[in-house]
Amino acid sequence: MGFFSEFKEFAMKGNVVDLAVGVIIGAAFGKIVSSFIEDVITPLLLKPALDAANLSTIEQLTAFGGVKYGLFLSAVINFIIVAFVLFLIIKAMNHAKKKDVAPPPPPAGPTQEELLTQIRDLLKNK
Prior knowledge:
This protein is mainly alpha-helical. The protein contains five helices and no strands.
């Protein structure tokens, strides 16, 4: 088997394709969360604090002349939201998996032959 055919076989496996789709969706989701933080959360929740500090964005928060802790705070908020949403997605998937799994069948009772044998033995003992 040639190098390229092996690579093609590897690349077309379900797990690799699923992983690639997950990475692409994750990157797009990261952009959505970043926009949510910068365009919704920061203006709504942090607006009073930013106005008091005479700043327009959280990224402008600095300390000691150059430490940009505003960018760090933005990244932390971003991470917390992404982690929480992923937790909710995984929790929903696990809940759906539990519904899909059929309960184990009840233990099988005695077969017809075993019942007949028991009846025969009971009749013999009388």
